[in-house]
């Protein structure tokens, strides 16, 4: 098989530190499985690059990226460069140009992790599918009468039939593929919100094509409470851009926080590369100290491997993370240990290597 081409964008701060650990994982896969070969290119497009060149990426940056099968992103953000520049000149153009309209975030309580927000008997394992291209985060709107007592601001929400249909289909297909029984739609159509009435209609229409999967509709306020009260009852949660943004952070807090939260920006048609990145930023407060937890980056790598068609290898990566968490010997400070980024990454890649060796001996 042809090697998969992967663009690596380490970024700033702890980005390159956690990316190094993700690269160890890709190396193990490559060494142990002849049918999963990758060609990796590291692209140094970060704040340093901006300070030298006056731009976040080369003029033909997007054209360069379009040649890849996937993009693995670290994190971006540096106090010497305003945040709007790092975000709007690097991350956003990639998401938009490559039509990554699905933002997928797993919410899963990994073996070995406890948080005060859920009962240890609960088995939490669901995904949030967030619409990533339209919705509440639109350019439509503005401010009037600025600086006067009559000042007002208008923000328009754009919900389209096509956009909603595509995200709902993705959610139902995902449920089917992962043997999920239920799709939960986040809405607020009981209030005078026209956009969510259309959302509900379209989601219900798509649901008819999936009689094997139940559609549950919850108002966003109640759903936020259910996330805390009965997180073990969800399979796939589909939400608009704003609702999905908020639910994602709640979901991440439920099962362990930023150091453990991966995400995928997906172009389902595979017409363009998809991008995989931890939810966290460049964490300048701990950059250079070896304290960064590499699990979010490693798990994002697993999502990438899954997207590239190797769900089996993705599962092995997540299992290896859980092995190391359960043993609890080399945890980073955010997990209550005093291990380093490097030690935790090493432990996970060693486990992965052991698991793959064992599988190949058993002829699996
Ligand atoms: P942050 O996620 O970088 O950090 C928030 C807190 O979580 C900090 O205390 C940090 O130390 C901790 N933390 C984050 N990741 C961690 C990890 N892997 N292990 C252990 N602790 C971790 O968010 P912030 O401080 O608000 O932002 C810092 C910079 O990152 C800003 O410039 C911001 O714009 C940028 N940012 C970028 C992205 C992205 O690249 N997609 C996302 C969020 C923030
Ligand atoms: Mn957010």
UniProtKB/TrEMBL annotation:
Domain (Isopropylmalate dehydrogenase-like): residue spans on this chain: 5-348
Family: Belongs to the isocitrate and isopropylmalate dehydrogenases family.
Highest taxon of the lineage: Bacteria
Reactions listed under catalytic activity: (R)-malate + NAD(+) = pyruvate + CO2 + NADH
EC numbers on record: 1.1.1.83
Lineage per the UniProt record: Bacteria, Bacillati, Bacillota, Bacilli, Bacillales
Organism (species): Metabacillus arenae
Protein name: D-malate dehydrogenase (decarboxylating)
Database matches in SMART domains: Iso_dh
């Amino acid at each position: 098989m042809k090697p998969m081409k992967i663009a690596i964008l380490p970024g700033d701060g702890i980005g390159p530190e956690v990316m190094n650990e993700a690269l160890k994982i890709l190396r193990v896969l490559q060494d142990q499985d002849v049918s999963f070969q990758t060609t990796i290119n590291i692209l140094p497009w970060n704040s340093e690059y901006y300070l030298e060149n006056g731009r976040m990426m080369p003029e033909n940056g997007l054209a360069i990226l379009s040649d890849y099968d996937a993009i693995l992103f670290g994190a971006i953000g540096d106090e010497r460069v305003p945040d709007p520049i790092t975000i709007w000149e690097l991350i956003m153009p990639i998401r938009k140009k490559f039509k990554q309209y699905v933002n997928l975030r797993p919410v899963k309580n990994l073996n070995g992790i406890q948080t005060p927000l859920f009962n240890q008997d609960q088995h939490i394992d669901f995904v949030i599918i967030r619409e990533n291209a339209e919705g509440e985060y639109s350019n439509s709107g503005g401010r009037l009468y600025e600086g006067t007592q009559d000042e007002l601001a208008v923000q328009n929400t754009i919900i389209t039939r096509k956009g909603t249909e595509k995200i709902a289909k993705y959610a139902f297909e995902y449920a089917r593929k992962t043997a999920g029984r239920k799709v939960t739609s986040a809405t607020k159509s009981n209030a005078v919100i026209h956009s969510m009435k259309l959302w509900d209609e379209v989601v219900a229409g798509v649901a008819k094509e999936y009689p094997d999967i139940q559609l549950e509709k919850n108002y966003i306020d109640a759903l936020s409470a259910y996330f805390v009260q009965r997180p073990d009852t969800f399979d796939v949660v589909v939400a608009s851009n704003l609702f999905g943004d908020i639910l994602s952070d709640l979901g991440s807090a439920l099962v362990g926080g930023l150091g453990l939260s991966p995400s995928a920006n997906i172009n389902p048609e595979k017409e363009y590369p998809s991008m995989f990145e931890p939810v966290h930023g460049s964490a300048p407060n701990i950059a250079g100290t070896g304290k960064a937890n590499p699990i979010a980056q490693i798990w994002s790598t697993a999502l990438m491997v899954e997207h590239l068609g190797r769900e089996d290898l993705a599962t092995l990566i997540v299992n290896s993370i859980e092995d190391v968490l359960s043993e609890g010997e080399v945890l980073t400070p955010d997990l209550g240990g005093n291990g380093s980024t490097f030690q935790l990454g090493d432990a996970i890649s060693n486990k992965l290597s052991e698991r793959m060796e064992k599988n190949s001996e058993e002829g699996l």
